[in-house]
Amino acid sequence: MGVRVGQCRAMVLYGDARSCRINPSLHIPISSEVRRMTMHWTLGCDANDPQRMATFWAQALDYVAETGFGDADSASIVDPDGREPAIGWLRVPEVKKAKNRVHIDIRVAGDGPWDMTERERLIRAKVSELVALGATSVREEHDEEALDHVVMLDPEGNEFCVA
């Protein structure tokens, strides 16, 4: 049963229209502004070593292992604050053969506007941290005079960027 414009919120929340009569403050018609809830999604990835990839990306993104999920052939990490999507890996026998069609951008400087000197310092610090965890720095991309992002490879050769 979908939510309809004009339908009482108490009916949607509690499944019982009598709630409106018992407590009239619950009778709040749903406006056309409330049409659907936020979609939740996860990112699913293939890996030769799911545990290694989960460990690397958990450290890279400040995530944690997902409770109750994972074995030798799978692993999953989640945002400890529950705001960002989960990422999971399944073991596959084949190795990566081509450039990624989708990749992760780690935005260490947050939203702009930025102090470009500080932004570059944050990018370089994160790149150094990730290299120590097993990533490879491929190249730097500059926008005019400033560092825009660094292209990197994770431990299994998947491209990602630090910006």
What this model shows, in words?
The chain folds into three domains: 1-37, no CATH class; 40-95, Signal recognition particle alu RNA binding heterodimer, srp9/1 (2-Layer Sandwich), CATH 3.30.720; 99-163, 2,3-Dihydroxybiphenyl 1,2-Dioxygenase, domain 1, CATH 3.10.180.10. Helix content is 25%, strand content 26%. The protein has four helices and eight strands, in the order ααβαββββαβββ. Strands 1-4-3-2 form a four-stranded mixed beta sheet, with helices on one face. It has a four-stranded mixed beta sheet with strand order 5-8-7-6. The chain starts with 8 loop residues before the first helix and ends with a strand.
The ordered H/E elements are HHEHEEEEHEEE
Sheet with most strands: strand arrangement = 1-4-3-2
Distance between the termini: 44 Å
The chain-level structural class is alpha/beta
Largest sheet: 4 strands, mixed
CATH superfamily of the largest domain: 2,3-Dihydroxybiphenyl 1,2-Dioxygenase, domain 1
Helix content: 10-25%
Mean pLDDT: 85
Fold blueprint:
Layout: H1 9-14, H2 18-22, E1 42-47, H3 50-61, E2 64-65, E3 74-78, E4 86-91, E5 104-106, H4 116-132, E6 136-143, E7 146-153, E8 159-162
Parallel strand pairs: 1-4, 5-8
Antiparallel strand pairs: 2-3, 3-4, 6-7, 7-8
